[in-house]
């Protein structure tokens, strides 16, 4: 299918599909005229990529683990999964630390606003 149909079917913009290709996450086929040709397995891969990106994982990490998630083989899966899970845990921990800092900042702003409203009365 052409990029417009692949975009519609996957719910991912044509621009994102091109970006995934540029990042080496997908490799669509080509028609004789040079247009991209997306098969169902590529669309399935796009849906996995989209889900991982929406989870906040960086493209670098997705690129590393994607072959083991989409090739259907179990060879080396345990090692890849252990390393991947370790990376995901690290990413999650960094995210939790950022959330804690933002929560502290939000609490400080809330306190400031409460105090400001008190002095206005």
UniProtKB/TrEMBL annotation:
Which Gene3D superfamilies would you find in this protein's record?
1.10.1660.10
In this chain the HTH merR-type domain maps to 1-68
**Which UniProt keywords are listed?**
DNA-binding, Repressor, Transcription, Transcription regulation
Question: Could you tell me which InterPro entries the record lists for this protein?
Answer: DNA-bd_dom_put_sf, MerR-type_HTH_dom, MerR_fam
PROSITE patterns from the UniProt entry: HTH_MERR_1, HTH_MERR_2
What are the protein's GO molecular function terms? Answer: DNA binding; DNA-binding transcription factor activity
Alphabetical list of PANTHER family matching this protein: MERR-FAMILY TRANSCRIPTIONAL REGULATOR, REDOX-CYCLING DRUG-SENSING TRANSCRIPTIONAL ACTIVATOR SOXR
What is the official name of this protein in its record? DNA-binding transcriptional MerR regulator
Q: Which organism is it from?
A: Micromonospora polyrhachis
